[in-house]
Write a structure and sequence with these properties.
26% strand, UDP-n-acetylglucosamine1-carboxyvinyl-transferase, Chain, 425 residues, 30% helix, alpha/beta, 2 domains, 4-stranded mixed beta sheet, 14 helices
Length: 425
């Protein structure tokens, strides 16, 4: 197990101007692994996950599950889950560190008929209301209330029952909650305005292999017919499309040539289309993306959107790339209202960015300059690393506890591609 304690006192030092070249293997997706891990609460016969990334967030989820009574055995990316939750209350000290902990609510309600989950923490990138998760529970027959910072839910004698869940806005987490709560509820559940992300499809595939009856994965209408039990299943976590996209930007921003392995290119279709329009050369094989560049990128305006649109989780990385583009780029953020927190730090490195409401106007410069910067959230931390790779001089990046939440073994991966990078106190 990696030791993630006190990593905030460590820093990453990068001396830029090195072209990245070589091959990199993408890890399993954090955003797929976390709901799959939460799923273990309702998998009474056990669950085995492989390709689980070793991150602060996945380790924290394992601790949360263990605290509830689930036995967790972690061995080189393969994680076994056994047992049944012995209590219905999630630990406040653990939950406050991670937004994804809200995913425990539905499974606990299914398993224990009651659940008490503290309001979650996570990245400060804007409001991520939990009201849609509450909508799910109430639509399926649960009683939900708030008590001193806790969400308290219970089920009557009749148990959870199928219903129609019509989301007023698309939400990945709420869609995952709906699926996990509905699979063992009686009758049929119809989920309208469902999210389409590959991570949701991955969750559904795992459940189907365990005996669940789910139709419509990858569309905005998902139908779940409840079953009485789920069988033990072994499942490989889908690869991390956001990590893959980050390395694609790394190749482009350093004018290098990187082969990105263990990735499904279809999960990044729109992003790769945009990257091509900025001048990057992209070759796609079955599980491989090769990205190369030899000149400053061409500016291209983007608007973040729900899948299959431009991912909000790649917006900060894309801004780093556009900060050295030959012209002006407009980046519009439509998912999270506070997702430009990396901008002041990019400006410290010489970037020219103006913010107007939810739009960023990025005027590219020929060269960024190394500086001392602080990461404000997970994806912001990666954008600063990318900017540092393309900068003259040395950059010092602080706030690494954010980075540790979402990128596995990043320093070694970048070093193997030729980056001048080290991590130390």
């Amino acid at each position: 197990m990696n030791n993630f304690l006190n990593k905030d006192v460590e820093k990453i030092y990068i001396t830029g101007n090195n072209k990245l070249n070589g091959k990199v293997k993408i890890s399993g997706a954090k955003n797929a692994a976390l709901p799959l891990m939460a799923l273990s609460i309702i998998m009474e016969e056990g669950l085995t996950l492989s390709n689980v990334p070793d991150l602060a967030d996945t380790r924290l989820m394992a601790s949360l599950l263990n605290d509830l009574g689930i036995l967790v055995n972690w061995n080189n990316g393969k994680v076994d889950f056994y047992g049944y939750p012995k209590k219905d209350e999630a630990s406040y000290d653990l939950v406050r560190q991670m937004r994804a902990s809200i995913l425990l609510l539905g499974p606990l309600l299914v398993s224990r008929k009651s659940a008490k989950v503290p309001l979650p923490g996570g990245c400060a990138i804007g409001t991520r209301p939990i009201d849609l998760h509450i909508l799910v529970m109430e639509a399926l027959g649960a009683n939900v209330d708030y008590d001193s910072g806790f969400i308290v839910a219970s089920v009557g004698k009749e148990g959870l029952r199928g219903g129609v869940i019509d989301f007023p806005k698309v939400s990945v987490g709420a869609t995952e909650s709906a699926i996990m709560t509905a699979v063992l509820s009686s009758g049929q559940t119809i989920i309208l305005n469902a999210a389409k992300e590959p991570e949701i499809v991955d969750l559904g595939k795992c459940l189907i292999r365990a005996g669940a009856k789910i139709e419509g994965l990858g569309t905005n209408r998902i139908t779940v017919n409840g079953v009485k039990k789920l069988n033990k299943v072994d499942h490989c976590v889908v690869s991390d499309r956001i990590e893959a996209g980050s390395f694609a930007v790394a190749a482009s921003i350093t004018m290098g040539n990187v082969e990105i392995n263990n990735v499904n290119p279809n999960d990044l279709s729109y992003f790769l289309k945009i990257l091509r329009l900025t001048g990057s050369k992209i070759k796609i094989d079955r599980n491989t993306i090769n990205v190369s560049s030899s000149k400053r990128p061409v500016p291209y305006n983007i608007t973040t959107d729900i899948h299959p649109g431009f991912p909000t989780d790649l917006q900060a990385q894309y801004m780093a790339l556009m900060s050295i583009a030959d012209g002006v780029t407009i980046i519009k953020e439509t998912i999270f209202e506070n997702r430009f927190m990396h901008v002041p730090e990019l400006i410290r490195m010489g970037a020219k960015v103006l913010i107007s409401k939810q739009e960023a106007y990025v005027t590219g410069v020929k060269k960024l300059k190394g500086a001392k910067v602080m990461a404000s959230d997970l994806r912001a931390s990666m954008s600063l690393i990318l900017a540092a790779l393309a900068s003259s001089g040395t950059s010092e990046i602080d706030g690494l506890f954010h980075l540790d939440r979402g990128y596995e073994n990043l320093v070694n991966k970048l070093s193997n591609l030729g980056a001048n990078i080290k991590r130390s106190k």
